[in-house]
């Protein structure tokens, strides 16, 4: 089993971007932590893009390959109907798609309070730093691992 961990815009700057909000660890550290948390037989593929079309293409690929998805849509969370429609294809195909956020968007600016993704996600985990991803991985393992 492979679990795709997809990250949207500006998350390639983790570690140096607003460390007070997102912490001081980078995507390499996230990849290592998730790899260590994954049980035998489960491989983790962490990707990041600033490009909406590329992220949508990765969701299409998840449908075709029947791969569960952990998705941090970053700022696309709040306005990308294209990403939402692609996320809906994943869950309508019967695959889990868990929306994650490092910060708790509800405790931040009002434009972050709405997610156009959540209604088509299997579930949402936010506010636990990198542990948001690990909790999502645990849930995917519990349900299909
Ligand atoms: C984020 C929250 C979003 O509002 C923001 O645009 C991000 C990161 C998070 O992980 O906390 O880029 O998705």
From TrEMBL:
Transmembrane segments: none annotated. Pathway: Metabolic intermediate biosynthesis; chorismate biosynthesis; chorismate from D-erythrose 4-phosphate and phosphoenolpyruvate: step 3/7. Homododecamer. One of its GO terms (biological process) is quinate catabolic process. The gene is aroQ. PANTHER family: CATABOLIC 3-DEHYDROQUINASE. Its EC number is 4.2.1.10. Substrate binds at residues 72, 78, 85, 102-103, 112. This is 3-dehydroquinate dehydratase. The keyword Repeat does not apply. InterPro entries: DHquinase_II, DHquinase_II_CS, DHquinase_II_sf. One of its GO terms (molecular function) is 3-dehydroquinate dehydratase activity. HAMAP family: AroQ. It comes from the Bacteria. Catalyzes a trans-dehydration via an enolate intermediate. It comes from Subtercola lobariae. Gene3D superfamilies: Dehydroquinase, class II. NCBIfam families: PRK05395.1-2, PRK05395.1-4. The record marks 17 as: Transition state stabilizer. Belongs to the type-II 3-dehydroquinase family. The keyword rRNA-binding does not apply. CDD domains: DHQase_II (cd00466). Pfam families: DHquinase_II. The active site is at 22 (proton acceptor), 101 (proton donor). Keywords: Amino-acid biosynthesis, Aromatic amino acid biosynthesis, Lyase.
């Amino acid at each position: 089993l492979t679990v795709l961990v997809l990250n949207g815009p500006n998350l390639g700057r983790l570690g140096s971007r607003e460390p007070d909000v997102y912490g001081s660890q980078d995507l390499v550290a996230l990849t290592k932590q998730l790899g260590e948390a994954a049980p035998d037989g489960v491989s983790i593929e962490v990707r990041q893009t600033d490009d909406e079309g590329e992220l949508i293409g990765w969701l299409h690929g998840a449908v075709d390959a029947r791969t569960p998805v952990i998705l941090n849509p970053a700022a696309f969370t709040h306005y990308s109907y294209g990403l939402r429609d692609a996320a809906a294809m994943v869950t309508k195909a019967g695959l889990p798609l868990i929306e994650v956020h490092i910060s708790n968007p509800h405790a931040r600016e009002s434009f972050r309070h709405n997610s156009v993704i959540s209604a088509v996600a299997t579930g949402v985990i936010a506010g636990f730093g990198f542990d948001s991803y690990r909790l999502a991985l645990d849930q995917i393992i519990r349900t299909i691992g």
